[in-house]
Amino acid sequence: MQKVKNIQFKNVDIEGGFWKQRYDLNRFVSIDSVYNRFEDTGRNDALRFNYEKGKSKPLHIYYDSDVAKWIEAVSYLIEKNGGYEKEQAEIDKMVDAMAEHQLDNGYLNSYYIQVEPDKIFTDRTCHELYCAGHLAEAAIAYDRATGKHKFLEIVEKYMDCIEKTFIKDRSARFSTPGHEELEIALIKLYDYTGNKKYLDMAMFFIDTRGTLEEQEYEFAEHNYAQSAVPVRDLDMAEGHAVRAVYLYIAMSEAAIKTGDKNLLNACERLFNNIVNKRMYVTGGIGSAKLGETFTVDYDLPNLEAYSESCAAIGLSLFALSMQQSGLNAAYADVIEKIMYNNMLSSTSLDGKAFFYENPLEFHLASVDKETSVKPQFRSHLPIRHRLEVFACSCCPPNVNRIFARIGDFFFSEYGDSLVINQYGAVSLKNEKINLRMKTDYPINGKVKFTLKDNKYSKVILRKPSWCDQFTVDGAKYQLKGEYIQVEPNMEFSVDFKMKPYFIQANPMVRADNGKVALMYGPTVYCLERIDNPYELNALSVRLKTKFKKIKNPNYLLPDLETVGFSDEAFDSLYRKANNDKNPVKLHFCPYWTFANREECDMIIWIRKL
Amino acid sequence: MQKVKNIQFKNVDIEGGFWKQRYDLNRFVSIDSVYNRFEDTGRNDALRFNYEKGKSKPLHIYYDSDVAKWIEAVSYLIEKNGGYEKEQAEIDKMVDAMAEHQLDNGYLNSYYIQVEPDKIFTDRTCHELYCAGHLAEAAIAYDRATGKHKFLEIVEKYMDCIEKTFIKDRSARFSTPGHEELEIALIKLYDYTGNKKYLDMAMFFIDTRGTLEEQEYEFAEHNYAQSAVPVRDLDMAEGHAVRAVYLYIAMSEAAIKTGDKNLLNACERLFNNIVNKRMYVTGGIGSAKLGETFTVDYDLPNLEAYSESCAAIGLSLFALSMQQSGLNAAYADVIEKIMYNNMLSSTSLDGKAFFYENPLEFHLASVDKETSVKPQFRSHLPIRHRLEVFACSCCPPNVNRIFARIGDFFFSEYGDSLVINQYGAVSLKNEKINLRMKTDYPINGKVKFTLKDNKYSKVILRKPSWCDQFTVDGAKYQLKGEYIQVEPNMEFSVDFKMKPYFIQANPMVRADNGKVALMYGPTVYCLERIDNPYELNALSVRLKTKFKKIKNPNYLLPDLETVGFSDEAFDSLYRKANNDKNPVKLHFCPYWTFANREECDMIIWIRKL
User: Fold this and answer.
1) What is the C-alpha separation between B160 and B201, in angstroms, rounded?
2) pLDDT of res. B2
3) B265 vs B248, B268, B425, CA distance in Å?
């Protein structure tokens, strides 16, 4: 069933432009920032197995996964760029500690071994298999990057333990992971080692899920952890958004590897449900803070949006996996939406701090509005500035690893064609081609392709869904659906005509009725009050309006200025309605750059006149 | 400081039209409905003192207040219309039981005497003084209506106990009522008995409030029960909305009686804060379910609106009291807003069922939207149909007593002038005048006045704030501010030109930006989906539009029809914005008639094109 083969970052060079800047910010700043805060908070100590009760900082059940994701990210950077000797030394020490403390039966979890050894595999909500999955993903990446096998050997021993406990003996108190992730790792283990046992284990956990009565959090229904029905019967994205998309990634990978059509159909239904009914314009998903969950179709509130960084990252990887199922631009389109919006907004401009929730609106006056109940009982709104670390700090190392593998998103093979999924100043060098894109994308839509040693019969360019008009120079081409099939010459160029435009949401989206969002290419724009000293919700705009591009010294994309209107202020609470309004200058900035100055109101969706 | 004297319902006859229908619905249906459900739920048994542990239905700390409010309502109806012999017999039996079970020191609370006698006056959050206040209000009303003094004597003995415990000995575990109400009752006791002790007691509780560290609910800040600062320093309506307005009523009554200018200033600030920044268009107040509280200025969400019936009733009584401080139409204007909207919406068309919360919007798709957390953890939205009784059933008997005294709102005296505050087919007969209004108000704005035996030098008509145009026939008049001063003839008439119009909210109200509400005279209109089979939030309307009046067989006011627009439906979640929309017929009904058919979406605020 694998019709498209994604080309992995190993052969992809981020050479310049927008993505080079972004890649290096992660490589040289974010990686260190996350490591340092993990050091401060005792997280790295988890895998050093140096916990002393009463002396050490408290350990948490998910610390292994935090550190593992950081190791995975560093491994990707080592694989691509070498270096990181100091970090490698630290990781090697952790690997030694893991080897030393791994139980005889192969069990490996820093929290349970050091803090609650009598509770191993007794509580489904306690992330043991989730941590196991992240350790495995880290071990694979580290093995591939460094050729050092010790970490992977440890992990394989742990997988034997899991196989015995959960599949052979069924001796654990639960049957499937309370937080999916292990399934993804098992399929990667199968890919990396060729050992079919790992695919079988993955299929066991995928197939068992939703077929048994399992423990959930006290507040949760079974659909919270996607355990209410067998996975092939799923047709709506429900429950904890990160858990959900992590499951869907594994389902998609498994379906494509095994040719399981029912499983792939479920993945398609779930993908379509998300993209057509449950996704913010930024690519964010999971609208409710309550349980960090998906809610119902078209429920996309802006002020209360949860939109966790990990969830959008997960959705991008789900789409990347689904991209292998056939030539369907919808997948790369969603990836583009996430890459240029929710994924970027997750990190501060200086690369050091991160959003867990990615707000769709700030309205300072609504913060802590229940003034007569104690703060801990007030309604939750997202924080208004990024932090370097969180109590539950899953997102920062997830950001580390997604930017470290950003090269994975650009190219795939379809038969004897090369597919260009994303655009950037990026090159691909493998046994079939030496291709270079020269572009300022997403600052404009011009991309110049230079090809050497090409053995592909066609180069298939995805036409971004935002693009109404394009030109191709220097090659014959045909537009087929959302793809431009090019007869490759040594040089050709495409120009996806890029200008500011407004989009609207489906009328079923209550939060956005009568409103529009400004876009420029794939980039969502927003209004911050620091640039627009008005009540932002009292602003409006006409669809036909002219924009001026304003260079901002802090990032490559232009800010955009136009004329809008502000509702006339008055003193009373209500008055007879009129159409009075005042013209005002509106200054939009790229959404992902928001909240990098002082705390202030922000909106994406502005009223349309 | 009393410049205006409100004329009480005793001399006011509700003769016909809109208010006769409404008055009789309460008199002949709602009173019975509340009594019967109070009987079913064991509430009436509270004051029968027949509780047997393990056998009786459980008693609750606030049952005395529920029954007392019902007795007060019946007493008003007896005072005005006589009758209710069966109810009087029931009440007399309760009075005998109260006399029998009242403690020697005068203490009287059915819950504490029968269930937790060792906890008397130990917990400020347990409504003892609130219940005491309602018993006192009921006793005064019953005494005045029937001339039977036993109930009042019991209450006076209880007040002695409260005076000794809280003022002389200070032996209770708290100093001021956790829920205000007693203060109102004490001032009424002073008015009714002439005993200044009661005014002094009221002033003690008013003056002490906010000056001492007092117990609050675990979730609450001190401003929840208006206990954070001395009452004269209050300048924002904060905390539990019913508690707040009950305090303000007492403050206003006290200020006017004692000439306490600082206290009156505080009342004016609080009234203005509510009316200019914290009141729904229906007259509802207290926007948050969380603590049933006021939040911050301009925070008036529609979908989540709390807007408790008791709170709006309290605000109407606060305004009625403030009306005595001077000739200021703002007070009667707010009363009118409440009378024709939140007060009416509290009750079903059949008179039997009630809203506790008065929703400003229904959106069925948002109900229980957190599908993957258990129902008890999901976000709260108001119920979508009225109930005959609630677990905490304060609102239904409050509805009973406000409609039983609706005659209080129409007339007041200002020097040697008669002020007409509200309009209706109502007559006033006292030693100074025999006045009759003939009108279909609020179906139209024509009011014909017939005067006999008039000794007032002027009749001052309040010009409703919604009225831009009016004519006076048959008398000389002068418009002074918001009042029309008429040289009274035996017959004259006024026509407040009434036609449908749209209002808008202050641009600071985030929930209503870009929207308008349809009004007809004082009546707010709404759209119910049962009449308008569209996504209601996808509808819009132009300000300049023509309306057709449609007679509805279920109520006197007309429904209103016009042409509006529905946003064009499409399949995807987002698309390039356009202005496409389809013209649709919009059928508006009076807000207070909503939710009397099947459960369906409802909006008041509709987008303005």
Assistant:
1) 10
2) 77
3) 11, 5, 35
Distance of alpha carbon A357 from the chain centroid: 12
Residues 515-534 on A with a CB inside 8 Å of B are 516-517
In this model, does residue A1 exceed pLDDT 90?
no
B residues 202-261 lying closer than 8 A (beta carbon) to A: 219-221, 223-224, 238-240
Q: Containing domain of residue A571, as a range?
A: 500-608
Chain B: closest CA distance from residue A327 (Å): 20
Q: How far apart are CA A269 and CA B372, in angstroms?
A: 19
Q: How many domains is chain B built from?
A: 2
Instruction: Point out the residue among B277, B366, B577 whose CB comes nearest to the CB of A573.
Output: B277
pLDDT, one tens digit per residue, over A130-180 is 999 999 999 999 999 999 999 999 999 999 999 999 999 999 999 999 999
Q: Mutation test of the interface with chain A: which of B234, B370, B372, B466, choosing the one with the most A Cβ atoms within 10 A?
A: B372
3-state secondary structure A449-497: EEEECCCCCEEEEECCCCCCCEEEECCCEEEECCEEEECCCCEEEEEEC
- What average pLDDT does chain B have? 97
User: Are residue A541 and residue A469 in the same domain, yes or no?
Assistant: no
- Specify the 3-state DSSP secondary structure of A404: helix
Q: Which tokens belong to A133? A: 């999955």
Neighboring chain B residues of A299 at a CB cutoff of 8 Å: 365-366, 369
pLDDT tens digit string along A276-315? 999 999 999 999 999 999 999 999 999 999 999 999 999 9
Domain boundary residue, one of B496, B528, B559: B496
pLDDT reported for residue A34: 98
Claim to verify: residue A50 and residue A177 sit in the same structural domain: yes
Q: Is residue A165 part of a domain?
A: yes
Of the candidates B141, B161, B59, the one whose C-alpha atom is nearest the C-alpha of residue B95 is B141
- Please indicate, yes or no, whether residues A438 and A581 belong to a single structural domain of this protein: no
How crowded is residue B147: how many other Cβ atoms within 10 Å of its Cβ? 7
- Say yes or no: A202 and A83 in one domain: yes
Same domain for A518 and A582, yes or no, is: yes
What's the pTM? 0.96
Asked whether the ipTM of the predicted complex exceeds the cut of 0.90, the reply is: yes
**Chain centroid, CA A171 distance in Å:** 35
At A553, give phi and psi (nearest 5°).
-65, -15
